[in-house]
Amino acid sequence: MSSLDEKDLVKKYQYLPETIERFVSFFGIEETKKMVQAYETPPKTTIRCNTLKITSGELKQRLEEKGFTLEKIDFYKSGFVVDNNPLPLGATTEYLAGYYFIQSKASWLPVLLLEPSEDEVIIDMAAAPGGKATHIAAEMNNKGTVICLDISRERMKSLRSNLTRLGVINTICFRMDSRDISDLGIKADKILLDAPCSGEGLMAIDPTRKKERNIEDIRRLAQLQKELISAGLKELKKNGFLVYATCSTAPEENEEIINWAIDSFPIKVIKTKYEEFSPGLTKANEKQFHPSIKNAIRLFPHKHGTEGFFTCKLKLLESINE
Amino acid sequence: MINFRELSEKEEEIFEEELEYWVGSSHSKNLRGKYSFIIAEGKWKELLLTNHNTINMFTENIIKNPYSIGISFGEFKKNALLINLGALSILKKNTNKLITISDEAEQLFLYKRSIITSSVIEISKQITKGDKVIIINQKKDALGIGELLIQPSEIGKQPKNEFIIRNIIDLGWFLRKGK
């Protein structure tokens, strides 16, 4: 621990000292102060309109008639910030009828980067409980096929319930370890890997993560993330895309994973149109990353009003045969 | 282990009868053309609804047994097909088995309650006692399925607080059991 400022942050906000130390080394002391301060307030509730069942205009009108206040979001026309909740947002008739999904706005970005098309086969490698899978299906207008993978029995039930509620019919779900994706025997046009992570960006939603996740957890998860991204890239068609995402700000789970993948596979990081967000880091932990990693997207609570989040779009330049 | 397979001749017959009940023969044909259906059989037997691409993907490419395909349209029990929540919004568009209920009754119905006489706003023609119907609110959202317990012509003669529609299944299931 190098400075009084860092010690103050540890004490004031109840973090592990090593976590603050890491934040400062990645983002600097001033950004860290703003970030941990912002983590004290949960992000505003956001909903995604399920365009398979209703238009965003109709949904806005219906919820506003019930006393909710809906505000549009710049980067996605079917998303809203919801204020002034006169009743629980998860218990309205509109919710039960599948007209919307309660979901953080950061979670929309990986699907928007994926740019699903109607005739594609898309694999969601960590699909339950279905926020992103139902979003992909809506972008595909219930055409093509979304292959949903998840290992948890309980979460698969939630996934199935959400698919039914939102009227998503173009799915095949498998309860399996996504590292065994080659067992499916198919090559995908696109893959979404919303990887299991430390959740280091979720402190505002779950403050226990300030102290319950340490660098050992991050290293263990980084190994799993490498195994998952490796398995996914091998099942992608040539010129296919894989979108990687985590709800963590840790470079060990993000840029380091992508840098490792660039060194290991014929891929490149695609520049996106979402320039309002922060770029990926090009160095951390005394390591220099591939310059294209700046094309990745980072979201921070103090800058974007979201959880801490990372996402990037990779293109496979040559198919990988094993 | 769940076995995914095509419908047998008998299941086809039951399915056709059920679709004809809900939407009539011409819409039934349209639905069969627009969507694909497949049986999932394990401890229970479900009729799953999906699209043509997904069925083709499953039959031609997939080499591992899935957990599920598409959404559940209904469940086969003995020699009947019991329609469930996944079928509601599709059937609603083409059925004349509709009963509209009041805003006050909507919330109670979504809590698994049955419907009393004074909550009924409108009943489609051709519905008779014992029919299964789709319950909708005044905004035309499908809320669930009920069974009409009396003849429609008797509705004005019943006490206002008498239950006349039995709740079979409603969207509140997603809160009670779907999470």
How would you characterize the overall build of this protein?
The complex is a heterodimer of chains A (322) and B (179). Chain A has 322 residues and is α/β, with parallel strands linked by helices. Chain A has twelve helices and 15 strands. In chain A, strands 5, 6, 7, 8, 9, 10, 11, 14 and 15 form a nine-stranded mixed beta sheet that branches. A four-stranded antiparallel beta sheet of chain A has the order 2-3-1-4, with helices on one face. The mean pLDDT of chain A is 95. Chain B has helices at residues 9-34, 52-60, 88-92, 103-110, 173-176, and strands at 3-5, 36-41, 45-50, 68-69, 71-77, 80-83, 98-101, 115-116, 120-123, 132-136, 142-148, 163-170. Chain B is elongated. The two termini of chain B are 23 Å apart. Chain A binds chain B through residues 53, 62, 90-91, 93-94, 96-98, 119, 121, 142-145, 156-158, 160-165, 167-176, 183-186, and chain B through 35, 49-51, 53-54, 57-58, 61-64, 66-72, 85-86, 89, 106, 110, 137, 139, 141-143, 171-172, 174-175, 177-179.
Describe how the helices and strands are arranged.
The complex is a heterodimer of chains A (322) and B (179).
Chain A: H1 4-13, H2 17-27, H3 29-38, E1 46-49, H4 56-65, E2 69-73, E3 76-83, H5 93-96, E4 100-102, H6 108-114, E5 121-124, H7 131-139, E6 145-150, H8 153-166, E7 171-175, E8 188-194, H9 209-212, H10 215-234, E9 236-246, H11 255-264, E10 267-270, E11 278-279, E12 283-284, E13 287-288, E14 297-299, H12 301-304, E15 309-316
Parallel strand pairs in A: 5-6, 5-8, 6-7, 8-9
Antiparallel strand pairs in A: 1-3, 1-4, 2-3, 9-15, 10-15, 11-14, 12-13, 14-15
Chain B: E1 3-5, H1 9-34, E2 36-41, E3 45-50, H2 52-60, E4 68-69, E5 71-77, E6 80-83, H3 88-92, E7 98-101, H4 103-110, E8 115-116, E9 120-123, E10 132-136, E11 142-148, E12 163-170, H5 173-176
Parallel strand pairs in B: 7-10
Antiparallel strand pairs in B: 1-2, 2-3, 3-5, 5-6, 7-9, 8-12, 10-11, 11-12
